[in-house]
Amino acid sequence: MAADAGSPRVLLLTSGPLDVGDGEEAELALGLAQAMPEVDHFWFKRGRDGPAAAWRGRSVPKVSRNGAPGLPERLQLAAVGARLARRADLVHAVLSIGPGFPAFSRLWRPLLHGRPVLHTVPGVSDPTLLARSRPLGHTVALSEVTARALGAAGFGEVPVIGPMIEPDEWQLRPRSVREPPIVLATAHHDPGGGAYEAIGAAAVAARAGARFQLILAVQGRPGQRVDPLEQALRARAAQEGLHASEVLGSVEDLPGLLAVSDIVLHLPRALGGRQDVPFTVLKALATGRPVILSDIPQFAPLKDAVVRAPAADAHRAGHLLLQLLDRPWWWDKLAERGRATVEERFGPEQFRSAYAALYRNLLP
User: b/e string for 141-154 if b means 16 or more Cβ within 10 A?
Assistant: First the structure.
């Protein structure tokens, strides 16, 4: 049922306008609008055209010195969000807990005049921030690890609702026939963000005789100078003998890149506040691409849909890569498991039903 004049009005509150945003917050928020057309969602936008037909509301510019949602941005969000919240029956905040969140959480609730709030937490950049933060309202986490941390910090009982992947948008694809095969490594430029770990693992596999091309898709953070960081990665890859490697920044055509890739490496030592199960990993699994992950607690929900190596163990990750490249039957088995896991655990019906139940409980 599409939203109409009698539909509940829900303000989706994110740290920036959704028509120019990307990352976990924006993708989660847009997924909510897509999955629940019976709800009249509205949100901040900067451009003239909204990101989806369900858009309601008006443009609210975001003040930012470096693109990061720090304290000035959180204060603006508090003031403007409180004003717009008066038009809503429910406020659904999709906000990570970063440096500006503690002050925001203390200032904002008194401005809402009793409006109910649901807060989905995509990630926590630093667990020490939780001691200075206050719940915005009923809180939802994306993994059991984050839910336990939030619960221990006084956020109450925190349910877990995983992100949504639309299977029709991320269709299962046959294995690439490209030679040499492509190994796609996804990472961030953060220390321990997985880029150097992927290079190390690829070098181990190459020295053991594996033939492949390594492509590094490494995302920068707001405020990072990515050019020297990318140059350093190219130098390390060349030093390890991976001369055909490519280092990409932001990827505009992720479906196309996954289609030509054979295996995905995602080997962070820590998530650093990112979403617990990264969207890129889930999209790779939906596409039928086996994924090698570092064995950290946040990835436990994926169970046997992926293969894991101990964090920072380049030797083990490299030999897993070698085996996957050499064993087509194992590749096929993992491709089937990955797709099935996304459909069963991260599909739109599960996502929609979980949030619809919360909305019913919180709406006046």
Answer: bbbebbbebbeebe
Q: Which of 352, 351, 342 is nearest to 301 (CA)?
A: 342
Question: For residues 279, 282, 283 and 284, what is the CA-based torsion angle, rounded to 10 degrees?
Answer: 120
201's CB contacts (< 8 A; 6+ apart) are 265, 267, 292, 309, 314, 317, 318, 321
Closest CA to 209 of 326, 305, 103: 326
- How many angstroms separate the CA atoms of 43 and 201, rounded? 42
- The domain in which residue 285 lies consists of 182-345
Are residues 281 and 352 part of one domain?
A: no
Domain count, the chain: 2
Other C-beta atoms within 10 Å of 182: how many? Answer: 19
Cα–Cα distance, 269 to 59 (Å, whole number): 39
162 φ/ψ sector (left φ>0, alpha ψ -120 to 50, else beta): beta
Strands (E), the chain: 9-13, 40-43, 90-94, 117-121, 138-141, 182-188, 213-219, 246-248, 263-266, 291-294, 307-309
170 in a domain, yes or no?
no
Distance (Å, whole) CA 29 – CA 120: 9
In this prediction the pTM is 0.87
Residue 337 host element (H or E): helix 328-345
Q: Residue 177 falls within a domain, yes or no?
A: no
Per-residue pLDDT of the chain (364 residues; tens, 9 = 90+): 445 557 898 988 888 777 655 577 888 888 888 888 888 888 776 655 555 444 544 445 554 444 455 556 666 666 777 777 888 899 999 999 988 899 889 888 788 878 899 999 988 888 899 999 999 999 999 988 899 999 999 999 999 999 999 988 899 999 888 899 999 999 988 888 999 999 999 999 999 999 999 999 998 876 788 899 999 999 999 999 998 899 987 788 889 999 999 999 999 998 765 667 788 999 999 999 999 999 998 888 899 999 999 999 999 999 999 999 999 999 999 999 999 999 999 999 999 999 999 999 999 7
Q: Give yes or no for a contact between 57 and 45, defined as CB atoms under 8 angstroms apart.
A: yes
CA distance 164 to 148: 21
270 and 217 within one domain: yes
